[in-house]
Structure formats: structure tokens, C-alpha cells
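Thread: TniQ family protein, structure

OP (GT): Posting the sequence first so everyone is looking at the same thing. Length is 688 residues per the record. Can we get the C-alpha cells written out before standup tomorrow? I want them in the notebook alongside the other entries.
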Amino acid sequence: MTTNSAPWQVTCEVPLIPGESLDGYVARVAAAHHMPRMAVITEVAGAAATARPHASFCEEEGLPVLADCLRVDLATLRHHAPLWSTETETLNFFGTRLPKDFLQFPARRFSPKALEISPHHRALWQLRVLPICSETWVYLVDRCPNPACGRQQVWRRTVGIDLCDFCAEPLTRAEAASVPEAMRENLEHLVGLVHPDPARRTATLALLPPRLTAMEGGELLELACALAPLINHRAAKPLHMRSLSLEQAADVIVPAIAGTWPLLQGWPHALDQHMVDRIDRAKVARVDGNRGFSFRLLTRYNKRGLSPGVADVIGEFVAMLRNSRTRGITIREAMSLTGGRQRALCAMRRSGALPSVIALDGHQLTVLIDRSAVEDMVHRNKPRERLVRAAWRLGVPTYAIHQLVRDGELVATPTPPGCSEQLAVYEESLAALEQDLRSQLALQDESLATNLFKLMHRIGARPKPWAKVLAAIRTGALTASLADGTAPLAQRIMVANEDVLELPIFADDPAMDWSCVMVSKSDTAEIMNIPAPNFSKYCDFLFGPGGYFRDITMEEALTLGRTYIGTGEMGHRLGLHHTAARHMAEFRKVESRYPGLYSREAAEALIPEMSRQAIGGAPVISVPEKASAEMLATVSPEGRLNLPPYLRRKLGLDQGGRVTFEEGSDGVIMRALAASGSSQGTKAEQRL
């Protein structure tokens, strides 16, 4: 304590309370000595008696005199005094330098609940940008609770810290709004940056990244205020006003500053992501695009009067954004690299599925996709063939591609973002399958005279086993050759004879899951063994009107195949022309559902020989017990004999030939010759 500096001293010593403001301490001493005005003490230190009687405005030269008058230690008083810097831009706040605009001295703000606990004025209540009490978590008030008074509290009279300065109404009767609980944790950390307790400041700084830990608490609070407009744009103007209404602070300023703590804690990437979200949420570019708050912060930070430390850390962030082009790619580049669609990639970036980075490209903020996030999609983006194209190249129905993918003969490609979910395969796997098949089918063998594509027509009411057949040809398990022509590959495969249908590869495959497979109308026609050109006339009957390019579920196609059978399949299984098959169905009284379509159940029941030849074997048609249309032949007046299909097959005359007649006691016997002009007969004969 100094001596012989002040003209007089107080009669009793009043101890300073940790964290107490200097104005509150002087007012408390004046009230304890029943002095009429606070200026009685501050005038000793040279403060103006009328304009600025606050102890906070005392010059540094007057502090020794004030300490001698109050009979307190000069170092302790200097620690509580907001000493003005030489350039008058910053103030001392318990060892922390704060911008002068961050403290407010003329008005006496208070927390009614805190005054009930201890009637002294906390220095934190002088923070202009954070008018809250972190002890009781209420917003500060500054007016008398007496309706007849209601005046703003100042530092002039000395009736007491907890009494109105004008009418002596207890300030503890005032009502204060509570700070929302969601903001309290963030505000507690922000207050901790400039808290009078050094241990509290150290603990708060330990929560920040190393780059911000090197800064002072006042600079960090200044940085938070600079970022507050990014949380709420309405906070931009009031933050720079000398007078701040407490209502506006509670509604706008405090929530905006509270929202900046996560940006500080995750610096700098948290701010990067927040700017990305702001641009994504903006409906027009002016809100936060080329001329938004983010843009103004990044391009005008050195013109806003920020302290050098804050300007440097923002400048480093700007430099990082200008270099972000090296670690990010545009949507257009991502489309080229991944094969995705623009709208899908934008949606994935906005939803967070693709990490985003923001870049300052000249005078424009651009949101980019993190380059490392698309590396996997780039690796998978190889040339591919869509389902229909792959089926056309092999000459098989589209459902066969599903079979080949399941069996591992083809490799399915992941669907690029935004593309349809239809199956596609890698072009290299399709080309490898084609090459392997052509190498196995290269040898011409005249003994292989049966077309596999036509042979498949004997398999009805279920998908054809194309995958297993092609895999057998690929490995050499099935001997086949390739006929000349321009038709697709699978339609020119030749096998030995009809007996191959007895092989296990032609059996039904119940393990195949068709639940999610869609087939086209041409595939449905192939399953039902109806020629695709003829299938169109059945569409309205089978599916109803409309939907010419309609996709059909495999379950529906299989149901149709098990319900109906056409004359084409009947002819293939009986070895007859489809017209003869139709005549047989009519003669056997098979139920007709539609012209050319019959009930499969009725057909297999009334024509049992068709069912016996469903899966291969040479057609053997039994001789009817009594004369029927299959045993009747017509003779023209010129003597030409027109044999029915049954007799032609029975005598082996499918390709024509010559016959001989022998007359016996039982009638005339017709015998087929082995070849035209030959005199040797065959075992096939028919008694006429």
C-alpha cells in the first residue's frame, strides 16, 4: 500500500472480492462510508466529477493515489483496473487484453439472482458482447424493477450495489430471462477465454487446437465475434454498435456468439464445413455465395480493424482455401471421373455422403468434393455394358445376364451415382466371355447339326439355362461349334443332337432368386416359346392395354408360362409344324384360352406324348388305337398322296423321299426307301 499519495484515506479497509469490477468496488466502498457520490473517491485519482466519474476511466498515473485512498495494494488494484493501452485500442481485463469495444462502463448491468448470493458487481458483467451471468445463467438487466422508477442503473450515487441508484429499490426484485440450456456449455467456454481466474483461462485454452492456443483469450473472443455473422447474419451490424440493447443481445448476439465455439474448437475444418453448409442452404448466391457473409469475411478481414493476431489467423485460413483446389474437384470433374450424374453427386455432397471442401477461387467461393472421397468410385469406373446391350452381344435374353453374374461368368458393376439401378457388367468381363466362347466354338464340325437356340424351345414354362450352357461350352464340358452367319453368337451355336437336353446343365435351377429381376416382353415371349413378332398380338390379352415398353416381373412371366402354352412350343416338343400342333390340340379338345394360346395343364393332360418329350429325346409318337386325323391321308384325282405329319415322321420322310407299295392278302403295304432311287427299303412301313 502506498503512503503520502492521496490527500485523505478511507477510515476502514474494504477487501476486494476476486473477479469484482473496479467500479463496483469503489461504489461499495463509498456506500460503506456513506458518501453521497462515487466521484468523492474517483476525483482523488483525477477522474472528472461530472463527465466520467467511473473508476474505470482513471489514468494509470492516478492509480497509486486511488490505491492509497482506498488503502489497498497497488498491484491488486492495477489487476482489477481496465488500464487503457497506449494506442487506446485495447483494455486490460484481469491480465487479458480486450478490444475497447468489448467492455461497457456507463450502464450498470446486473443479475438479480447473483446479487442475492453476494451483493458485489462482477467484472464479467461489463462484457458488452456477452451480457449474461455465468453463475446463475440469466441474461443481465440494467433497469430498476420499480414500475414508478424503471431507470437505467449508472455509477453516480452510492446507496449500494444491490439497490437502485435513484429510488433505492432492491435490484434483487428484478426479473431476468434464463439462458437456454443448449447454449450454456458453449457460453461457459467463451467466458472462460477471458475469465478473471487464470486457471479457468488455461483450462479453456486447452480445449482448442494448437494454432488457437497460441493466441490470447481476448483475440479468441474477437475471432468469435468476427465469425458470429456466419451463424446469424443479423448479428453483423449490432456487434459494431457502441450501444447494444439487452433485448437484441439476448435474441441475436448471444446465440450467434455461442454458435461460434464449435468453429473455434474444430478450427479450421469446422469453419470450412460450416461455410459449405451455408452455401448449400442459401437459396440465392447473394445470401452466401459471391457476396455473402462468408465471402466478406474472407476478402475484407484486413479492412475491418481486427487485431493483428486475429487478422493473421483468418489470413492463414484464406490461404488454405486458395490452395483447396489441389485437394478438391468440381462436380463436373467428378462426373467425368465416376460416371455419375450431376444431380446425384450434388445431393450426395449436400447430404454429407461425399465430404466437401470450400475453395476461394479468385473472387468466388466454390464448394468442391474431396478428391480422396471419390478415389474408390474412380477405381470402379471402368467401361461397362448395360443389361440390354450385353444380352444383345451374346444373343441371349436379358435374364441370362443375371444368371451369368450369379455364376461368376460376368462381373456386375456398381451403379454410378444418379444412374438407374439396372444391372450392368464390366465390358472386360463380357469381352473375355465372348473370346473364350469363340475359341471353343472355332472348330467346324459337320456332325454338330442341331441348333441350340431352337433346341431350347423344347424347354417351356421356365427360364432357359443359358448361364450353365455357356459356362459348359466355355470350359469345354459341352462340345459345340459356331455356324456361319451374322446372327448373335448364342443363336448360331450347334450341338450334336437332341440328346444333350438330357444333360444336368439343362435341368431346372431352383437356387436362382428371381424376386428382384425384371424382364422385357421379348424375354417373356422367349420363356413362353412364342416368337417375339407374334407375341405382340397376345399382349393385350396377357397384360391388358397400354404399356408397350412395360417391364414385367419374373414371377409374373413364370406364372404366364405355367398357365399358357402356344402352338410353337407344342410343335417343337411333338416334332410337328405349329399348324399340325394346332390341329392336334383342336382334335384332342384342348381348352383354348385365346387364339393360339391353350391351357398348359389341359394340353399336357390330353396330349401325354408332348409331356414325355418336354426335355429331349427323339420324338416318338405312339400309334393311336383307332383311326384319327393323324392316320388319314388324302389322295388327289391325279393320284398324289398327301401324308399327314405323323406318318411322315413314322416313315422318316420329314425331308421327303420315295416309297414303294406291296400288295398282300391283308391289303397294300407302303414302305419308305432309304434314299431317292434306292431299291432297299427301311424297317418303317405302313399298311394301307
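GT: Both are above now. Quick notes for whoever picks this up: DSSP finds 31 helices and 22 strands in the chain. Residues 268 and 317 are 7 Å apart (CA to CA).
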